[in-house]
Design goal:
- The chain is an alpha/beta fold.
- The chain contains 12 helices and 12 strands.
- It has helices spanning 13-21, 34-40, 57-62, 81-86, 95-114, 117-125, 151-160, 187-193, 213-217, 236-244, 266-277, 292-305, and strands at residues 4-7, 25-28, 46-49, 68-71, 90-93, 143-147, 166-170, 182-184, 196-199, 224-227, 250-253, 281-283.
- The strands form 2 sheets. A 7-stranded parallel sheet has the order 8-7-6-9-10-11-12, with helices on both faces. It has a 5-stranded parallel sheet with strand order 2-1-3-4-5.
- α11 links the parallel β11 (250-253) and β12.
- α1 (13-21) runs parallel beside α12 and α5 packs across α7.
- The relative contact order is 0.13.
């Protein structure tokens, strides 16, 4: 009998084809629920996930045959990797596959925000031709603060090279990468000197709400704020307050603290509406890193890392 692999999310056809060529029986259940996963996981030697399902201790205890978990994309916050390790389960993610896509979106959102492209376009649809109030800011010559210098942060910095910017990078766990326009910095220096701040962090207990009220109140240059990592990296209430108090010029968000809009409380709906109604805010539905090219590259990276 062939070993079975469960794919729990949309994946490039290359992934299933390659797994089948390597002798696996592949089952694709892209809408499988957590309770269903608990019941079925014991059948599988391999598991492919994205950001939808929590692979916690109860799931892993039922995964009697599981040998590996492949995460399409970056961030393993939904997987109890430490417990998986004790069970001999290999866990791999594929940030190398979509880091360029995230970086390109971050740059696109930033340029649109600084040049008021979305705002001006909406106004023209309403019959308004407004030039003076839509005067933009140039990226060239600015100081860009990067918080987190992993795959996506490093790729975003690479894309910024042609703009003649100064890049200040804070990464608690990386050192020795300063060169040319890239400078290692403390978090305080990033907050003090940056005209733009972009978050590129995994979501952990340490990074949860790192962009909080104290963070925003310490910003001296009224920067543009970008978050393409995880929604809970920023405190939504603090972000809204920072916008209202003029502590930041605008925000580009590809992620929200709660991305299940149909589950919103009354308070969450009020917060979302405040963000949507603000002309200096751009929100996209967690699509950074989801380009057509990244969709395929993530599968290739997972196959390589798992040595399948």
């Amino acid at each position: 009998m062939k070993p079975k692999v469960l794919i729990t999310a949309k994946a490039h056809p290359l992934l299933q084809k390659s797994l089948e060529e390597k002798g696996y029986h592949v089952v694709a259940k892209v809408t499988i629920s957590y309770p269903e996963l608990l019941q079925e996981i014991g059948e599988y030697q391999g598991l492919i996930i994205t950001t939808r399902l929590k692979i916690d201790k109860p799931v892993l205890l039922e995964a009697k045959a599981l040998k590996w978990i492949g995460r399409l994309g970056s961030g393993m916050e939904l997987v109890d990797t430490e417990f998986a390790k004790t069970l001999g389960i290999q866990c791999e993610s594929s940030p190398e596959g979509n880091c360029n896509a995230v970086a390109e979106q971050a740059l696109g959102m930033l340029l649109s925000l600084m040049n008021k492209i979305n705002k001006a376009s909406r106004e023209i649809k309403d019959g308004k031709w407004l030039r003076d109030i839509n005067r933009g800011d140039e990226l060239t010559g600015k100081a860009v603060g990067i918080i987190g210098y992993g795959n996506t942060g490093a790729n975003f910095v690479k894309l910024l090279q042609g703009f003649g910017v100064t890049v200040l990078v804070y990464d608690k766990y990386k050192f020795g990468f300063s060169k040319d326009y890239i400078h290692e910095a403390s978090l305080e220096q990033v907050m003090r000197y940056s005209n733009i701040i972009s978050m590129h962090l995994p979501l952990t207990a340490e990074t949860y709400h790192i962009a909080n009220e104290n963070f925003f109140s310490a910003l001296e240059m009224k920067p543009y704020f970008i978050n393409t990592s995880r929604g809970a990296i920023h405190d939504t209430a603090a972000l809204i307050n920072a916008l209202e108090q003029g502590q930041i010029k605008g925000a580009a968000l590809d992620v929200l603290e709660n991305e299940e809009l149909q589950s919103y409380t009354a308070e969450e709906n009020i917060q979302l509406n405040k963000l949507l109604e603000n002309p200096n805010v751009i929100i996209t539905p967690h699509i950074a890193g989801y380009s057509h090219e990244a969709f395929e590259k993530m599968s290739r990276v997972i196959l390589e890392k798992l040595k399948l």
